[in-house]
């Protein structure tokens, strides 16, 4: 009996160890944050990333177009790009909309999003997935407000999105629908899929009337709601980074002291928010200035947010969007900006021990997508000089990877 008990004990410990190893392996599959660093598989996670908002729409438009998604992921992976930001929303009556009315979804479009997630996983590219747009493009916040109006609810303005109980319910239902979605290709629920790096509450949230209190309350409520469903994935707000009246000394860093109702520091101090984000468009924000002056603005913009992220918010930072519009096809101008931005990003990432996780260029496309062009698009197969700049940055950033103590 003693020997049997001993053997049972040994076997019990063996199986218990397998359980712990399995849990550890599952945990390590997800990008996490530790203090002011991103962490993946026990090492710091620094990256070079890109935006491709269009993926779900193109995949849903025609099966013959789905190869464009695979091609972009393949070319991006070859250039060392390892994080992609895309959308998990499209609201309205358009045949390619994901949510056609509150709580009603187009299954064909959802399967297109399944394909995007599946393909990203094949190429070892992590996804940051935004859950709604601030603007009327692709439905967004204005569409939710219009749905409420159509239901006979008294609406004052688009800022009611943040406070009206019915509209907040629309948004929460969408969050739950996406996070609990079982991928028809991989059979993995989105909330369990390590291909997804992070959820984003909204692309560039703003208050129409610059009501910071209103926006803060919404962030607190919705961040807690997302985490009540999914504690495995990281969560961001999706902010551009504008400072508000609560930090008047920081407003000097905003372009023209511009405010939109966001408070970079206070918003990101919400405990369920895992990292900070900024967007950077010096061409649009600092018009009528030389390239040198724009770069100086950009460096101050990054520096101020980096310092606040490290010392006050104490969370890592991502430059989530940046780019240059070259409608005149001035590739040299784009390459010059990207080289300057990438060099600055690299130096800060190196000096902050990975506190600046990476930067994400806007935007990467495939051939034959002229209708989606906005002047910022980069087709890697057609832009050898830009692709080299991207690949060199990817190599530098990956070299910063280092083990992180538990």
Q: Can you describe this structure in just a few lines?
A:
The protein is of the alpha/beta class and 406 residues long. It is built from twelve helices and 15 strands. An eight-stranded parallel β-sheet has the order 10-9-8-5-4-13-12-11. A three-stranded antiparallel β-sheet has the order 1-2-3, with no helix packed on it.
Describe it for me?
The chain is α/β, with parallel strands linked by helices. The chain has one domain: TIM Barrel. It is 43% helix and 15% strand. It is built from 12 helices and 15 strands. The chain has helices at residues 2-28, 55-61, 66-78, 107-122, 140-150, 165-179, 212-229, 264-268, 282-285, 291-313, 331-351, 384-398; strands at residues 32-34, 37-40, 43-44, 47-51, 83-87, 99-101, 104-105, 126-130, 196-200, 234-236, 276-280, 317-322, 356-362, 364-365, 378-379. The strands form 4 sheets. An 8-stranded parallel beta sheet has the order 10-9-8-5-4-13-12-11. It starts with a helix and ends in an 8-residue tail after the last helix.
What is the chain-wise order of helices and strands? HEEEEHHEEEHEHHEHEHEHHEHEEEH
CATH architecture: Alpha-Beta Barrel
CATH class: Alpha Beta
Q: CATH superfamily assignment?
A: Glycosidases
Q: Count the E strands.
A: 15
Q: What percentage of amino acids are in beta strands? A: 5-15%
- What is the tally of helical segments? 12
